[in-house]
Design brief:
single chain; about 230 residues; mainly alpha; 2 strands
């Protein structure tokens, strides 16, 4: 889907900026990789050798809240939400048959971004006996069924990338959550499991953002976006 270009005849001032797909994906990937690596190194040293400073451990602990990984995860989801919003507005403007499903997808990512910062699912998990992941698995199946027509409407390359990104994200958020549930949080095995879990979530979103950008730019590496004030 081409990004709307500037209309020189418009009487309203416009702001232009250029999106570079590879630069955006590289920044998100390198940042995610650094945070996951730091968690792995610090957790291995703390639980495998000797205790390290609590503040340093907490700062990079992907299983904690209000730290660098939490900030990045929320930001990562927000970036994907922004590009989803651009596509959704264009689809609604064009009266696309799938505009409603694009809107639902946009709203879903808005919720995920809020949840990442506010920790809504952690709150639910603290007041119920079964893990929230079981309910999440049911929701994933229902959402998947709802989006089948949407996925079929996409170009084949975009379809494959969307499904791959979703599989990586859900594998981390739900499957790895269930794998780590019976483990002791003070053991190295648990902390390495959460590293894999959060890493899959982060990179699943990065893959999705990459697919969105490729879809928006029709396969090009960069595109200029114009915004009317």
């Amino acid at each position: 889907m081409p990004i709307p270009e500037r209309n020189p005849s418009s009487e309203y001032p416009m702001f232009e900026f250029t999106l570079h797909r590879r630069r955006i994906v590289k920044f998100l990937s390198v940042t995610a990789g650094f945070l996951i690596l730091m968690h792995g190194i610090l957790a291995t040293w703390n639980y495998g050798y000797e205790e390290i400073n609590w503040y340093l451990l907490q700062l990079f602990d992907v299983n904690e809240e209000h730290n660098l990984p939490t900030w990045f995860s929320g930001f990562n989801l927000l970036v994907a939400t922004l590009f989803l919003g651009i596509i959704t507005m264009q689809k609604r403007k064009l009266g696309d048959d799938m505009a409603r499903r694009w809107t639902v997808l946009f709203a879903g990512f808005c919720f995920l971004s809020i949840d990442e910062i506010a920790g809504l699912h952690e709150t639910v998990n603290s007041v119920i006996d079964p893990s929230w992941a079981w309910g999440g698995l049911v929701i994933v199946i229902l959402v998947g069924l709802y989006f089948i027509p949407f996925l079929r409407s996409l170009p084949r390359r975009t379809l494959i990338h969307f499904v791959l990104a979703g599989a990586v994200f859900v594998g981390g958020a739900v499957i790895m959550e269930l794998v780590g549930q019976p483990l002791d949080s003070d053991e190295l095995a648990y902390n390495l499991t959460t590293m894999v879990e959060e890493g899959m979530e982060m990179f699943g979103v990065v893959l999705f953002t990459r697919a969105l950008l490729a879809y928006m730019m029709a396969g090009n590496d960069s595109a200029t976006v114009s915004l009317r004030s």
